[in-house]
Fold this protein.
Amino acid sequence: MKNENLTNDEKALKWDLLMVAHDLTPLSHKGSKDYKKGWFDAGQHLLTQMVFVEDWYDNIDEKIKPKLRKLIFDDKLFYSIGGNPFFYHMDDKPDTNIELSVPCGDFFALYCADAESIKFDEISSLHDMVYNKEIFGHWGCDIWVARKRKACPCEYVLDRMTNRVDGSIIEELKSYK
């Protein structure tokens, strides 16, 4: 897919994917003590990642792309290059792995960051739950993770969900205890 044919959302997503977790400073390149070499290595690394992200995005099923974009832009889906959304260090071999994960912090334990990996064939089900507010309220991501893990949320969350989420969902979540 040529960049000229991309929507602004697609261009923004591609650029955002490239920039995630990249600290492009000369000192960020492992082992580079030479300032100029550090910038050169960082630039080479970014070019390699650009080609990889372009190929990765182009190979996504066209039916999934709008759902993927919406979930990412609405902060319902995290992504990272190299598998860790919080830490990234450039090395001599750039990572060629983009990980997608669903945030579910403070759902199973209060004051706890948490996320669950997701595959492309699961994107549609997550999208449907997140944007069906009548049944799932604003807990679509969390309930999706609970179902996948077969895990019950903490009591505080269950109490807050009562009368805000379909009653059958509450009963289902309690059954995972």
Residues 35-58 form the longest helix (24 residues). The chain has two domains: 1-100, 104-177. The CA atoms of residues 27 and 33 lie 7 Å apart.
